[in-house]
Amino acid sequence: MRPESDVPLRERVLIVEGRASSTVLFHVWGALPKERPANCEILLISFAYADLPIGRTFANAFPTTSPQSVARTRCKILAVTQQFATPFGEVPHGWKTICLVEFPEGIPDVIASLPIVNGWYENQNTVGLCDEETWRLVAD
């Protein structure tokens, strides 16, 4: 276990590799809620920097190669699974996961423009999710 408080502020970025394809959804459907709020995306997430609870919110989304192109957005992790369709109670540290993420004010272009992928490692043009304090450090 690695609590978020043990991670340096600059490293508290959750990396999104892409949006889940219909093939991915077919395999993990049973591990995600059937009822979903509007403005949700099912995202493939890279290795988590810490154990992150369901309900964890972020304030910024940005291309990892261009942090200055930030989208101020509120998003919240609603559900977590992985390729074996086991529901998780959190995003576990060091795991790649598939997360249902809600964007209550609408899905920002930086997320909507991510490619639809069948698995991890297919897309190198990733997006980071983080809080304002972390973004200020990353964008410097």
Q: Any descriptors?
A:
140 residues; alpha+beta; Elongation Factor Tu (Ef-tu), domain 3; 6-stranded antiparallel barrel; two-stranded antiparallel sheet; 14% helix; globular
Q: In terms of topology, how is this protein built?
A:
Layout: E1 14-20, H1 22-28, E2 40-45, E3 52-53, E4 57-63, E5 71-81, E6 90-91, E7 97-102, H2 109-112, E8 116-117, E9 127-130, H3 132-139
Describe the structure.
This protein has about 140 residues and is α+β, with helices and mostly antiparallel strands. The chain has a single domain, classed as Beta Barrel (Elongation Factor Tu (Ef-tu), domain 3). About 15% of the residues lie in helices and about 35% in strands. It has three helices and nine strands; from the N terminus they run βαββββββαββα. A six-stranded antiparallel barrel has the order 1-2-7-5-4-9. The protein starts with 13 loop residues before the first strand and ends with a helix. The model has no long low-confidence stretch (mean pLDDT about 95).
Summarize the structure.
The protein has helices at 22-28, 109-112, 132-139; strands at 14-20, 40-45, 52-53, 57-63, 71-81, 90-91, 97-102, 116-117, 127-130. With 140 residues, the chain is α+β, with helices and mostly antiparallel strands.
